[in-house]
Design a protein that fits this description.
- The chain is mainly alpha-helical.
- It has one domain (about 1-310, about 340-474).
- About 70% of the residues lie in helices and about 0% in strands.
- It contains 22 helices and two strands.
- It has a two-stranded antiparallel ribbon with strand order 1-2.
- Helix 6 (about 125-135) packs parallel to helix 8 and helix 17 packs antiparallel against helix 18.
- The longest helix has about 30 residues, at about 90-120.
- The chain is globular and about 70 Å long.
- It starts with a helix and ends in a 5-residue tail after the last helix.
- Mean pLDDT is about 85; it is low at about 1-25 and about 320-325.
Length: about 475
């Protein structure tokens, strides 16, 4: 927390030259705005709002609320500042650009979340968890199996969903063995974050980079090996801390509901559609995802008809066959309603807060300091460390807003570090925060911190592997 405030305070001290474009095509000189009262106040406002986000678990205040408030006020200050400079249209054009970026991210995530909720309702994840728990694997096998599945499921299902699913498996197998549950949860967080780093669908940061058109879909796989190393190095050390126990197999059976496998297939088709829209039609991936939502919409109509048809109620009062509960048919819009709206609104607040601060010239100054003075490699390594403290979403959006001039290999490096850097601390990623809530009192900030030196070895090793393997594009 102190490091986060120090970093943002450092931004406040720095001043530099930045230009904001207006709708008339002229540029607005913002070189002095960083030291203006409204500029500094906007920065303090963002620090205050994000401090509340960091302490969400303690305050029980949803993370979207403070950033929504801060975003609105910051843009009021931007508009007032530009109007005072004689340009009443610059703020409007700038915020429209940020709104467009958010709209693409919002539609993409809304579709993805709807599919994940649909698979959850059809017991896809529960069936997988049931199968794993009932096998009677040893603790060490479960440790490696949950890590491996986390690494390969998160590129498709996202790191948060994957961490919760595998965390439930670890807790079910570990039971009262808190040491195993803790180590397994740490391993799952690292694996889920590492797996999400080499896929546009695995993390919000990789999605933003892909939608920005900086890295193509197939190019993300260039950081597969560094991502794998990022997980394997700390996992190899933690392996020896896992007891050689054989817990009793749990008698748990959970079957998938009607249409579950077809929904999985439709989700894969939706991903293929989004990639095709981006690669071949040069359309935003979000439009392909929304077409995929149409696939699910038609299939949900079919499911609803079939499930209602299978409910054969007998209205004859003399009949001995009675039904006390009516089956709940699949409803697409219920799945849309179950999307993580707090998270979606949080992204809105973060994107507009960072976009507003960029209008005051702060990001241009930081970009010049980090990517010119320190160099892109050092800067990108620091981005990963910073993402463990602040959160990788605002950090990556800030980098994308700065848009520093660097090689393709460097863009892959910052994608890697922003994705896996959050594993250094339990609060550094959505996966870690979610598991702290699920395994409350067992998997804690302090328990994760004990393994941070080993996780840092994996972080450093993944960067070295990237610099070697992808040396040609650096």
């Amino acid at each position: 927390m102190k490091l986060a405030l120090s970093f943002v305070g450092f931004l406040a001290i720095l001043t530099g030259t930045a230009m904001a474009s207006s709708s008339s095509g002229h540029a607005v000189d913002t070189s002095q705005l960083g030291t203006s009262f409204l500029g500094i106040f906007s920065l303090i406002l963002f620090v205050g709002a994000y401090s509340l986000v960091i302490f969400e678990e303690q305050l029980h205040l949803r993370k979207s609320k403070p950033v929504l408030m801060a975003a609105g006020l910051i843009w009021v200050f931007v508009a007032i500042t530009f109007s005072a400079m004689g340009n009443t249209h610059a703020a409007e054009q700038a915020i429209r650009h940020n709104l467009l970026e958010y709209a693409e991210l919002f539609l993409f995530l809304l579709c993805a979340m709807t599919y994940i909720n649909s698979m959850d309702e059809r017991n896809v994840f529960q069936a997988l968890r049931s199968w794993l728990v009932s096998r009677g694997f040893s603790f060490r096998v479960v440790f490696w199996l949950t890590g491996l599945l986390s690494f390969f499921i998160s590129p498709i299902a996202d790191n948060l969903t994957t961490a919760l699913l595998m965390g439930a498996v670890a807790m079910a197998v570990g039971g009262s063995d808190k040491k195993f549950v803790t180590i397994a949860c740490i391993n799952i967080v690292i694996a889920a974050n590492a797996g999400g780093a080499f896929s546009p669908f695995g993390d919000i940061t990789t999605l933003m980079v892909w939608q920005k058109g900086i890295v193509e879909f197939s190019e993300f796989f260039a950081i597969f090996l560094p991502s794998l190393v990022n997980w394997l190095v700390p996992a190899a050390f933690m392996h020896f801390a896992v007891a050689k126990k054989q817990p009793p197999a749990a008698k748990e059976t959970k079957k998938m509901k009607l249409g579950a496998k077809r929904i999985i297939l439709l989700f894969l088709c939706t991903i293929a559609t989004a990639v095709s829209f981006h690669n071949f039609l040069h359309l935003p991936p979000a439009t392909g995802m929304m077409l995929g939502l149409g696939y699910l919409g038609f299939f949900s109509f079919y499911l609803k008809k079939v499930e209602n048809r299978n409910y054969d109620i007998d209205d004859n009062p003399l009949s001995h066959q009675t039904y006390h509960t009516k089956p709940d048919p699949f409803d697409l819009f219920r799945k849309v309603a179950r999307a993580e709206w707090d998270t979606l609104l949080f992204f809105y607040g973060v994107i507009l807060c960072v976009g507003g601060l960029s209008q005051f010239g702060y990001l241009a100054t930081v970009s010049a300091f980090m990517y010119h003075d320190l160099g892109p490699t050092t800067a990108n390594v620091l981005v990963g460390i910073l993402s463990a403290i602040v959160d990788n979403i605002p950090v990556m959006f800030a980098v994308l807003t700065m848009l520093p001039d660097m090689s393709h290999g460097q863009w892959l490096l910052v994608t890697l570090t922003a994705g896996v850097g959050g594993s250094l601390l339990s609060i550094g990623s959505a996966a870690g925060v979610a598991l702290m809530g699920a395994a409350r009192g067992t998997y804690t900030f302090g328990a994760h911190l004990k393994w941070t030196p080993v996780i840092a070895l994996g972080y450093g090793a993944s960067i070295i592997v990237h610099l070697i393997v992808n040396a040609k594009i650096m």
